[in-house]
């Protein structure tokens, strides 16, 4: 994927009140690196996220502030992942008076309440709790620009991972409503380039997740693949037969993501498991335990109730 990504400069002014500084940590899951954003137009600025603590990031941040003749008074952390929090120590070493805000704060940090407003010269930001990617995840509405800092709930490339699919879907619906609707409204993601049509991208994410869920359901309706010996094992006992007809998570992944490199299948498995758990809570699928292995099937199928075989 890295070879297919649009090249982004280490430092880029995205608007009069927003400068993006890359975290210096490109990778398979961080894309071009973590986006950190310096917000405001006056002598005091607000920072969104801190990268993972790479020396190039704090050096770039210092250069920008020197050129802007500005300093940082506060920083907002969108969520707890290390590639967004790792630079906090370097930030405080350089600007010890900086107030660090985070929902469900760590030691020395200040809490962010849902709906809390942050105002600095040139910008006002409203924090909105949007769990899903993580339980503490916050997005920030930039009122003057009809823009949204989406953290890792929506990315500039590809799709996002999540801890709780039900919460994630609810948050995406909420995010779509945060735009005024008078224009496209930009989205500033935690990774990847700026998204010119924020509402459109959020709607695309919602459709994509719905399609993935439907793929899981349709796959469960089809015969599961043959086993390693080249044919499906059909066992005489009804419980064993139901287990052999049900799907493991990795069998679902290999079928649904057959065009995706196998190196990415373990990451995809997490998303498929989240879909299965959501469907199970909704009463649409059941799990069969075959020894130490879990297999999944549509609810109402023979042997679909959870049981140890």
UniProtKB/TrEMBL annotation:
Superkingdom classification of source:
Eukaryota
Q: Which GO terms describe its biological process?
A: secondary metabolite biosynthetic process
State the family it belongs to: Belongs to the metallo-beta-lactamase superfamily. Glyoxalase II family.
GO MF assignments: hydrolase activity; metal ion binding
Keyword Mitochondrion part of the UniProt annotation = no
Q: Which cofactor does it need?
A: Zn(2+)
Residue stretches in coiled coil: none
Q: Which InterPro entries match?
A: LACTB2-like_MBL-fold, LACTB2_WH, Metallo-B-lactamas, RibonucZ/Hydroxyglut_hydro, Sec-metab_biosynth-thioest, WH-like_DNA-bd_sf
Which organism encodes this protein? Answer: Achaetomium macrosporum
The answer, when asked if Ribonucleoprotein is one of the entry's keywords, is: no
Q: What is this protein called?
A: Beta-lactamase-like protein 2
Keywords from UniProt, A to Z, are: Hydrolase, Metal-binding, Zinc
- Please list the residue ranges annotated as the Metallo-beta-lactamase domain: 33-191
């Amino acid at each position: 994927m890295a070879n297919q990504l649009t090249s982004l400069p280490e430092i880029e002014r995205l608007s009069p009140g927003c400068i993006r500084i890359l975290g210096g940590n490109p990778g398979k899951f961080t894309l071009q690196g973590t986006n950190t954003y310096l917000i405001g137009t006056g002598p005091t600025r607000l920072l969104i996220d801190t990268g993972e603590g790479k020396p190039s990031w704090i050096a770039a941040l210092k250069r920008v502030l020197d050129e802007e003749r500005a300093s940082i008074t506060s920083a907002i952390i969108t969520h707890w992942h290390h590639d967004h929090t790792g630079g906090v120590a370097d930030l405080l070493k350089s600007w010890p008076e900086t107030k660090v805000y985070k929902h469900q704060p760590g030691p020395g940090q200040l809490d962010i309440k849902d709906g809390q407003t942050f105002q600095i010269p040139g910008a006002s930001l409203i924090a909105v709790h949007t769990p899903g990617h993580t339980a503490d995840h916050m997005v920030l509405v930039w009122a003057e620009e009809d823009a949204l800092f989406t953290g890792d709930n929506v990315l500039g490339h590809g799709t996002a991972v999540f801890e709780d699919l039900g919460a994630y879907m609810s948050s995406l619906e909420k995010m779509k409503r945060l735009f005024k609707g008078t224009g496209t409204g930009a989205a500033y993601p935690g990774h990847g380039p700026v998204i010119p049509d924020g509402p459109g991208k959020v709607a695309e994410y919602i459709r994509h997740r719905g399609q993935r869920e439907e793929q899981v359901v349709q796959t469960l309706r089809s015969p599961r693949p043959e086993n390693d010996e080249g044919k499906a094992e059909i066992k005489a006992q009804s419980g064993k037969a139901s287990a052999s007809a049900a799907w493991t998570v990795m069998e679902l992944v290999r079928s649904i993501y057959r065009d995706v490199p196998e190196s990415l299948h373990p990451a995809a498995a997490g998303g498929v498991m989240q879909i299965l758990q959501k469907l199970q809570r909704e009463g649409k699928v059941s799990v069969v335990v075959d020894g130490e292995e879990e297999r999944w099937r549509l609810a109402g199928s023979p042997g679909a109730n959870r049981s140890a075989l």
